[in-house]
Every structure is written in structure tokens, then in C-alpha cells.
Predict the structure.
Amino acid sequence: MSYHIAVLPGDFIGPEVIDATLAVLEAMRATHGLDLEFERLPFGGGAIDVHGEPLPQVTKDACSRADAVLMGSAGGPVGDHPWNRLPREKRVESGILGLRRHLGAFANLRPVKVFPGLEHLSPLKEANARGTDLLILRELTGGIYFGKPSYARDQQGASTMVYDRYEVERIARVAFDTARKRRNRVTNVDKSNVLDVSQFWRDVVVGVHRSEFPDVELDHLYVDNAAMQLVRSPTQFDVVVTGNLFGDILSDLAAVIPGSLGVLPSASLGGAVGLYEPVHGSAPDIAGRGIANPVGTLLSAAMMLRHGLSLAPAADALEAAVQAALMDDATVDLGGSRGTAAFTEAVVRELQAAPATA
């Protein structure tokens, strides 16, 4: 079966890690019988320069028609950059939020796993990092990023955190259902001791648990304690479910546990078409130097194969090849010697050496 993939390379290292990932997926055409068609589309800062907006209509239309969307990374340098001086609705970040909403992607899955044998890459003590295998489930389309009123004025700025019952119910159901397929444990993270919206969030999560998933273990942490526990003892977590703002922060914090933001993938699901992208940013400081880490994008592609295209054997093979390549020699940002091209070639070799699966 042939699948059509909308590809959004993005900015700076985005095209570099996308090119690496597409090369590996093309190699899997021979090793695993993948039949994928790729359509490159404008998105992010480059789209602003050409189309005047980060998410042009041509890209929205193509993403809606695709079987899955694979994105690199978008955006530019922090600070006084032309893209950052645009009205808020024209900035790259608004394009990212708009794409998620356009696709109906309300659940962001961010797995954080330390591969066996690679514990030494973690900034944590090896004993603490060993066995880490957790999933942060972040609500994507509600909360403070979308609540109204929201403004910045001369004497005052305000943003509003709002959640409707259906938004919390659906992300809670995804969390409990996902936990049933893992280790059957969900940790809800909120700030219900001081925020009314967080108390509402917790009450709804508890209601869904009692009525639909009583077999799944549920506990709760305030977000500040959760941040501490993630770096103190990450192996205590299975599935973590939380709102948009807290999930944004915690997932980036947890992303360094395996050693680098460059190795973490993500999937944004909920609508008919899923969005798959690495956690890291566009890293303008290393763009064009040939040292961008493609692991996060490669593993995002594996999530695409598994969740978006129902090709679990191919996803398993890609993940295994990435792990084997890392164990042999890591990327530069992880203390290894391999740049983007060399690591990509190593992954292809691992795939070719492994038994093929249809």
C-alpha cells in the first residue's frame, strides 16, 4: 500500500534532519517494502519570507489530504529577528499552533526512553537514568496558549488558562488507554493547590478514571514536584498526563534525560492525520555545519510508521537501527564523532544488516 506524506522541512537544521530521515525511509523501501510518497511544503520562517505567513493555505490543504505529516523544526534565532517582530498571529509559533488545530491534533505524545547501554549519555547518574521509559501526554489545543483574553499593553499583560470539560475528558481517555498498553499507571500533573482551572482539570480526570478506567492506577503531582521527580527518579513514571503549558515545560525538561534534546521524538494525534516532529528547535547556531542530530526526527518517523500508518514492524526496525548506530558511535552533541551524514549512513547500514520484515 502506498502512503502520501506531507513533509514540512522548516528552517535552519530542519531541512538537514528531514533530508537525513527521508534518506533512511527511502532505504527502507528496499529493506522493508515501504512505499512512501513525499510532498515537500512551505512552513515556518521560510514560508513567511515567501508567502507572508508561516502556514500558507497550500500547506494546510496538502496536510489535510496526506496520510501523515512529518516536520523538521521551524523558527529562527531568539531576539531581534525579523520573524520575531511580526504581529503575534503571523509568527512561526502561531503557525505551529495553527497547524495542530487544523489537524485536530489535541494529544501530544512525547516518549522519553534511555536505551540500554546508553545510560552514560544522560546528565543524570547512570543508575538513575537506567530503565527510564516514560511517556508525557500533553494536551495541545486548549489552555493558556489559546485562552481569551490575551494581550500585552503598556501597563499590563494577560493570558487566560481555560479548559472545557470535553478537552480534559478526551486527553484523559487517551492517557488511560495508552497506559493499559504499557505499565498501567497514569500520573496526572497540575497545580490544583492554587489554580481553579487545575482543580477543574483534576476533578475531570478523576471522574473519567472512576467511571471508565478503574483498573488503571492513578496518582497526582503538582507541577513543581513533578519537575523535581522527573530528574530525581524518572523510572517511577509510566504515563504522565498534563495541560498544554505544563506539558510544554516538563517534556523539554525530560527530553535531556537521554542526553540531548536531539534524540526525542513526538507525535501529535487526535484528528484523521497525525503530526510527527522532533522535540528540538531549529538550532540556527549549528545550521549548515553538518552536525545536526537526526535521531529525534528519525524516531518521530518511527512513531509515524507505528501510529499513523500501522506499520509496527518497520517502526521497530527503524528504532532498533537507531539504537544500534548510537551504541556504535553517537552523534557529536552526545560526545560521539558522527555528523549528520555519517550517522544517517550508519542507520542505513544497520537496517540493511538486519533481517527484512514486510
The CA atoms of residues 302 and 318 lie 6 Å apart. The domain at 1-112+261-358 is CATH 3.40.718.10 (Isopropylmalate Dehydrogenase).
